């Protein structure tokens, strides 16, 4: 009953507003509203409606001031702001997903959540996915005012695995794994605490990171005997 | 997998060790992709040889002399040096089916450059260290002789040992002559450990045709380049089985041993003498294959130690030690299956494994990837290839991290792990990389051959080009290996350059170098430079083995 009433109220409001709109405004508003959560770029409205530029801009300004539409930053092209009816939330394609705020990757949130996950795994040595989720849920409200979804935690765990900071392993039930039943999937630190990150043999010499290695020949302009990187490396 | 810089490094090593003359011969092998230098004993059929050259990449002596601008004798001597140091293998090509009568009678000696054996020259210190850890100092000295001189008979080894002692004590040579028995004993220790072997047949007959199979081991290796590796590996294994008995045996003639039992006493004495004489003529050399197997095992164990723990490393070490004599080749993909009881017994034999319980061993085996099925069958086999692949991945990933940064590292690891195509947006979303940054990084990786890319055109309302990215491991591994050979060559060249630059320091008396001043400073710098370059080359060589030999 209440839903029906709500719908009727909105319809009344829309009809009241639509009565106060000019023809152009109504056309523009209907186009924007028709695009739902995808929104539409001002240039595309102009192409569809053929309304003169000055009139279009003026109408859009008015619609924004009446809080009927809003401007949303488009992740694909930040200069092309998208117009959207007030009742819709921008889609993932527009915002870039839950990791993006105002068209930018929220590195602060990513780092903070990574830190929390890593700290828990370091403390417990081995932690299951459920334990990490539970931990972030209880702690989440304090550290993350906006809250974090279980999907976000899952993705952070995947990224940490990609970064080789943690490993996804099956529990053996022994030693560090004693708290987790054998065979269950769990996470642990990829490097033992206190050990340095292993640098590969190539990565630890100048040639391994040299951007000019393809131009380097024994007697060429770039050669190991004239190499500047070698000079710096062997400067004792 | 022989790459461009691999050949350059091999030529450099040979130039360094034997001088320009031999290196010219070796570098000529670059003229043919197949690494074959051919010498036709009969110069009659030059035309025929030319045809061979085009189809099989074989050079005649005349061509070799012409390209190298050396005399025939020089070329021959250089080849002898290469053969002596096990860098070259001669073989006689078997007559082909379509050869006519004259062709069938002709002896065609060809020379195959053994690329691996040349690169192994980088690893001699590692081989010596292996012997020093497994056996004793006497064995190290004997092996050192073998590595320095390539091939030695027992008599030559005795002479060498005697000379060494003579030098040590500054006394007369004859007074310090080492008994043959002593050297024989040391050699037999190395033989039991399979670290030394008999030299292969000097000129085995080998078919160079594409389809035919050969029975000789070296021949199989020689034909490796023509055939897909699987069949050739099988061929090598088949050929190696009957050879094993002779390969590590001291007895000169197996037949005489059998005869001795039936003959009279006089005959026996005569045959023993004869046998001893024959024994002294046998040529011995270091068994590189066994050394590489040992180094591979070491690398496997150390990788498991860093990935898991000491207990798991102990279990793997015990399994590998127990099965090493049964391993048919170096690049074993899985360890030879063993029952839990055998593994437990082997683990208990080791110092570190004595405290381990069966449950602990079982847990370690499960960490090593042993499946439920193996537990049911009680035949545990460890996936060794996976451990090697992991180490290879880590090496390449560490290059990506250092060269392109953390974001690229994440994206590369995602693609490397999944092994399939992903589009740009998908990669950016999964690795949490800024959507605008992702294409730039991917492009840089692609430009440097670290990624493989394909364009897909999607036709809908608009025509969109989607870029799909992938890590193409076989291609990338070859590229990385080539870069590594390049880096090893550079390190080696820089070492030579530094030595040349500060050559005068080596002639300065040591007392003067101890006095503080610019000379001492310069000397200390040179020592540091050598230490850094030398240790880097040793470390890089381990990575080379990881990609080429393991």
From TrEMBL, chain A:
Name recorded for this polypeptide: DNA-directed RNA polymerase III subunit RPC6
SUPFAM superfamilies the UniProt entry points to: Winged helix' DNA-binding domain
Family: Belongs to the eukaryotic RPC34/RPC39 RNA polymerase subunit family.
UniProt key word Nucleus: yes
Keyword annotations of the record: DNA-directed RNA polymerase, Nucleus, Transcription
GO biological-process terms attached to the record: transcription by RNA polymerase III
Entry GO CC: cytoplasm; nucleoplasm; RNA polymerase III complex
Main location: nucleus
PANTHER family xref list: RNA POLYMERASE III DNA DIRECTED , 39KD SUBUNIT-RELATED
One Pfam family here: RNA_pol_Rpc34
Cellular localisation: Nucleus
Organism classification: Eukaryota, Viridiplantae, Streptophyta, Embryophyta, Tracheophyta
UniProtKB/TrEMBL annotation, chain B:
GO annotations of cellular component type: RNA polymerase III complex
Domain RNA polymerase III subunit RPC82-related helix-turn-helix, residue spans: 45-92
Main location: nucleus
MF annotations from Gene Ontology: single-stranded DNA binding
Pfam families in the record: HTH_9, RNA_pol_Rpc82, WHD_POLR3C
Record InterPro entries: POLR3C_WHD (IPR055207), RNA_pol_III_RPC82-rel_HTH (IPR013197), RNA_pol_III_Rpc82_C (IPR008806), RPC3 (IPR039748), WH-like_DNA-bd_sf (IPR036388)
One BP term from GO: DNA-templated transcription
All residue ranges annotated as the DNA-directed RNA polymerase III subunit RPC3 winged-helix domain in the record: 396-457
Record's keyword annotation contains Hydrolase: no
Keyword field contains Protein biosynthesis: no
Top-level taxon: Eukaryota
Protein location: Nucleus
Domain RNA polymerase III Rpc82 C -terminal: from-to ranges: 186-390
Family to which the UniProt record says this protein belongs: Belongs to the eukaryotic RPC3/POLR3C RNA polymerase subunit family.
Subunit structure: Component of the RNA polymerase III (Pol III) complex consisting of 17 subunits.
Functional summary from the UniProt entry: DNA-dependent RNA polymerase catalyzes the transcription of DNA into RNA using the four ribonucleoside triphosphates as substrates. Specific core component of RNA polymerase III which synthesizes small RNAs, such as 5S rRNA and tRNAs.
UniProt protein name: DNA-directed RNA polymerase III subunit RPC3
Organism: Vigna unguiculata
């Amino acid at each position: 009953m209440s839903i029906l009433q709500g719908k009727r109220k909105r319809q009344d409001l829309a009809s009241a507003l639509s009565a106060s709109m000019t023809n152009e405004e109504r056309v523009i508003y209907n186009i924007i509203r028709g695009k739902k959560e995808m929104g539409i770029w001002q240039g595309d409205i102009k192409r569809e409606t053929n309304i003169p530029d000055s009139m279009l801009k003026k109408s859009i300004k008015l619609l924004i001031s009446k809080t009927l539409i809003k401007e949303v930053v488009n992740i694909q092209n930040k200069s092309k702001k998208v117009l959207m009816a007030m009742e819709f939330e921008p889609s993932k394609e527009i915002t870039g997903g839950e990791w993006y705020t105002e068209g930018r990757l929220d590195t602060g949130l990513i780092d903070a959540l990574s830190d929390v996950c890593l700290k828990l795994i370091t403390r417990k040595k081995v932690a299951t996915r459920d334990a990490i989720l539970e931990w972030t849920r209880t702690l989440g409200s304090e550290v993350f005012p906006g809250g974090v979804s279980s999907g976000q935690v899952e993705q952070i765990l995947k990224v940490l695995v990609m970064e080789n900071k943690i490993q996804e392993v099956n529990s053996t039930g022994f030693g560090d794994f004693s708290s987790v039943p054998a065979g269950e999937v769990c996470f642990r630190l990829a490097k033992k605490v206190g050990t340095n990150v292993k640098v590969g043999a190539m990565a630890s010499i100048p040639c391994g990171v040299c951007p000019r290695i393809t131009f380097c020949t024994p007697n060429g302009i770039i050669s190991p005997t004239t190499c500047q990187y070698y000079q710096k490396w062997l400067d004792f | 997998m022989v790459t461009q810089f691999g050949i350059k490094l091999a030529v450099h090593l040979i130039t360094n060790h034997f001088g320009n003359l031999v290196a010219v011969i070796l570098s000529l092998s670059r003229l043919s992709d197949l690494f074959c230098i051919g010498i036709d004993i009969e110069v009659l059929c030059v035309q025929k040889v030319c045809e061979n050259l085009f189809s099989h990449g074989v050079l005649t002596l005349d061509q070799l002399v012409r390209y190298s601008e050396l005399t025939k004798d020089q070329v021959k001597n250089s080849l002898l040096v290469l053969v002596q140091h096990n860098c070259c293998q001669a073989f006689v090509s078997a007559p082909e089916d379509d050869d006519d009568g004259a062709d069938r009678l002709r002896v065609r000696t060809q020379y195959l450059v053994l690329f691996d054996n040349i690169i192994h020259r980088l690893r001699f210190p590692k081989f010596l260290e292996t012997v020093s850890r497994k056996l004793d100092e006497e064995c190290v000295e004997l092996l050192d002789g073998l590595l320095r001189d390539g091939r030695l008979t027992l008599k030559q080894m005795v002479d060498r040992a005697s000379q060494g002692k003579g030098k040590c004590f500054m006394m007369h040579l004859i007074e310090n002559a080492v008994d043959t028995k002593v050297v024989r004993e040391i050699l037999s220790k190395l033989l039991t450990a399979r670290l030394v072997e008999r030299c292969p047949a000097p000129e085995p007959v080998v078919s160079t045709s594409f389809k035919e199979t050969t029975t000789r081991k070296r021949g199989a290796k020689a034909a490796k380049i023509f055939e897909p590796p699987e069949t050739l590996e099988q061929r090598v294994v088949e050929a190696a089985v009957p050879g094993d008995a002779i390969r590590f045996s001291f007895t000169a003639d197996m037949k005489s041993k059998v005869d001795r039992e039936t003959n009279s006493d006089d005959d026996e004495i005569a045959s023993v003498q004869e046998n001893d004489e024959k024994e002294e003529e046998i040529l011995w050399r270091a068994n590189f294959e066994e050394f590489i197997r040992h180094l591979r095992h070491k690398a496997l164990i150390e990788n498991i130690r860093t990935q898991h723990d000491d207990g798991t490393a102990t279990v793997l070490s015990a399994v590998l030690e127990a099965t090493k004599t049964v391993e048919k080749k170096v690049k074993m993909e899985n360890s030879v299956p063993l029952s839990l009881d055998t593994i437990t017994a082997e683990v208990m034999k080791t110092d570190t494994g004595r405290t381990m319980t069966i449950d602990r061993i079982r847990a370690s085996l499960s960490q090593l990837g042993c499946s439920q099925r193996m537990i049911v069958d009680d035949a545990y086999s460890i996936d060794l290839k996976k451990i090697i692949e992991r180490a290879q991945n880590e090496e390449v990933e560490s290059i990506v991290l250092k060269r392109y940064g953390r974001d690229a590292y994440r994206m590369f690891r995602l693609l490397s792990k999944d092994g399939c195509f992903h589009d740009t947006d998908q990669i950016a979303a999964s690795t949490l990389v800024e959507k605008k940054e992702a294409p730039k990084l991917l492009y840089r990786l692609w430009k440097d051959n670290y990624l493989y890319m394909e364009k897909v055109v999607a036709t809908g309302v608009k025509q969109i080009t989607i870029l799909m990215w992938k890590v193409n491991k076989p291609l990338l591994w070859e590229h990385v290996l080539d870069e590594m050979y390049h880096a090893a060559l550079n390190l080696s060249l820089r070492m030579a350059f530094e030595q040349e630059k500060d050559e005068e320091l080596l002639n300065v008396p040591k007392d003067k170098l101890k006095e503080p001043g610019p000379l001492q400073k310069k000397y200390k710098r040179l020592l540091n430079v050598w230490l850094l370059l030398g240790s880097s080359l040793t470390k890089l060589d381990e990575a080379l083995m990881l990609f080429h030999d393991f």
